[in-house]
Amino acid sequence: MNIIDLITRDCVASDVKVTSKKQLIQEMAQLMVDCGCLAGSGVEARDIVSAAMDRERLGSTGVGSGVALPHARIEGLDKVRIALVRLETPLDFESIDERPIDLAVLILAPADAGSSHLRALAQISRRLRKEDVRTRLRTAPNAESLYTCFVDDAQAAAA
What we know:
Blueprint: E1 12-16, H1 21-35, H2 45-58, E2 62-64, E3 67-68, E4 71-74, E5 81-91, E6 101-110, H3 115-128, H4 131-139, H5 143-158
Parallel strand pairs: 1-5, 3-6, 4-6
Antiparallel strand pairs: 2-3, 5-6
């Protein structure tokens, strides 16, 4: 599984303005609907928000170092899809290190995804654990650069 196959340029946003965890997930869900990566699946933003918030109730997906990895399994998807956002202002996400987050990757997987969901989550988590990657993402001037930093690092790691 290669990250570049899971995300499109249109599923990346920078300087997103939100004031709550739910609002962030709503914005990311709408981004995924708007970017077209869910076309033909019948999946709507409200389905994503419901599933992701259900997962958040089990425990925060704020993994530390200013990063959140909200994720959910969604009926109707054919493969894992992701969206990446950088927030304008850090947000309390009830992270394990109690620090606010400013980078978030929403990971959606088919309801019957099995291990592909976990492989995607692990691959993204490993990448975002690297301080230099987080720094490049935080200093990228726009969404296009954010996408390039995220994907280029993924391609370098795969090589």
